[in-house]
Design a protein that fits this description.
2 strands; mainly alpha; 259 residues; single chain; binds fe (ii) ion; globular
């Protein structure tokens, strides 16, 4: 596959910081539509997903590492959570790399985007970063990993299912330490709720740019209720997530004509 370089306006620096370092093997794109988006259920899609997810995991690791460096005076508990997260996300990155190579793939085979890193780079406080990265991005990732584990298990692909199972357990911990920290901080000073709201709003605006050309029509899995409860979300929060997910999936099905 040949890759063409698309000339487009740079992303708005109000919502996007600089990208992470990537060596010359990688082709870095900015928005979802510029990636190689193969149809679901095709071998190309499954192969490309390993490369894409490997880079996503790397961005999450880099975000956790950057927060450790940027907030040296944060509580020891949350810093320990971030340090553990760095190690876990590095392992996830290597897991996807190993699977990619086992299928004769290689680094730089497909274009990548680093939007998670760039969005977090414009949030200047730890609680906002944790609300966006750990409590939002990773909660979505938890639903995806839970679904992928069950799907792989049902197909008899136990190597893949075991990898997702281990990853799911790690993601529960990453969300949980963020939930614990956010709840404790809100209890101490409810005004930090404004930082959370601002960060989530900023993220929503950035997402609208990244996914303007598609990429949000996911309807094959819903909320992993049990895992989210284990990750420290309250029953009410999970109920809201389920309702929003169901409404979104119904709308996607109606749009795609698969209802
Ligand atoms: Fe991960
Ligand atoms: Fe994680």
């Amino acid at each position: 596959m040949t890759h063409t370089n698309t000339v487009r306006a740079p992303l708005d620096p109000q919502f996007f910081g600089d990208g992470p370092a990537r060596d010359a093997r990688f082709i870095v794109r900015e928005v979802w539509a510029e990636l190689e988006n193969y149809p679901d259920g095709t071998p190309e899609r499954d192969h490309e997903f390993l490369h894409r997810q490997m880079n996503e995991e790397m961005c999450v690791m880099e975000n956790a590492a950057r927060s450790l460096a940027d907030f040296p005076d944060a509580d020891w508990g949350v810093r320990k959570g971030l340090a553990r997260q760095c190690a876990d996300e590095a392992r996830h990155t290597m897991n996807y790399h190993r699977l990619l190579v086992a299928r004769n793939g290689h680094l730089g085979q497909y274009p990548i985007t680093n939007f998670q890193f760039r969005i977090l780079g414009r949030i200047d406080n730890l609680i906002g970063r944790l609300a966006v990265q750990n409590r939002s991005f990773e909660a979505d990732g938890l639903d995806a990993a839970t679904h992928a584990r069950d799907e792989a298990r049902a197909k008899g692909n136990h190597v893949l299912a075991d990898m997702y199972d281990a990853q799911q357990a790690d993601e529960v911990c990453h969300i949980r330490f963020a939930n614990d920290y956010i709840k404790a901080e809100l209890g101490r000073n409810p005004r930090v709720g404004m930082q959370i709201a601002r960060a989530l709003n900023q993220c929503a605006q950035a997402f609208a740019v990244i996914f303007a050309g598609g990429g949000v029509d996911v309807e094959k899995y819903g909320v992993a209720v049990e895992a989210r409860l284990e990750a420290g979300f309250s029953a009410e929060e999970v109920a809201v997530a389920v309702r929003m997910s169901d409404e979104r999936r119904t709308a996607v099905r109606a749009r795609l004509g698969t209802a």
